[in-house]
């Protein structure tokens, strides 16, 4: 009889782990009705093209026009800073706070794009929140001030 109950306990534990994985996956994409994030596109799996960082508009010419960010469903953040590719992790907390961690990048030496890239990396380092509106994503600091602005490119 102990063997019977042990088998059921394993099955129930497996179901519990699966439910936890499903619930954890839901956290990576804030729901508009719960978090007040109103957007025409999802936060995750969207190509977010950098438009502005540290108060400076991004030029539409050269490699900087391709600076972008993609937040994956699995908590991985990756993109391109104008010179170097970057990758790390992110977490959405309480459907409004967004933090990046374990960020790293390639180390190519590029001319002219270093300032933009460093400003983007600094913005990501200081990000504490996120604001979405339509096709726009803003990274915010702890005081709610804008650090960087992105526009969704793969719009439906």
Short description:
This protein has 156 residues and is α+β, with helices and mostly antiparallel strands. It contains three helices and ten strands. The longest helix has 26 residues.
Distance between the termini: 56 Å
SS summary, helix count: 3
Average residue pLDDT: 78
Rounded to an integer in angstroms, the radius of gyration calculated over CA atoms is 19 Å
Compressed to H and E, one letter per element, the order equals HHEEEEEEEHEEE
> Strand portion, in percent?
35-45%
Structural class: alpha+beta
Poorly predicted parts: 12-36
The count of DSSP E runs of length 2 or more, i.e. the number of strands, is 10
Largest sheet: 10 strands, mixed
> What's the helical proportion of residues?
25-40%
Shape: globular
Explain what the structure shows:
- The protein has 3 helices and 10 strands.
- It is of the alpha+beta class and 156 residues long.
- Strands 1, 2, 3, 4, 5, 6, 7, 8, 9 and 10 form a 10-stranded mixed beta sheet that branches.
- Residues 12-36 have low confidence and may be disordered.
Secondary-structure map with pairings?
Elements: H1 2-27, H2 32-35, E1 38-39, E2 48-53, E3 56-57, E4 68-71, E5 76-80, E6 85-93, E7 97-105, H3 114-125, E8 129-134, E9 136-140, E10 146-152
Parallel strand pairs: 1-8
Antiparallel strand pairs: 2-3, 2-4, 2-10, 4-5, 5-6, 6-7, 8-9, 9-10
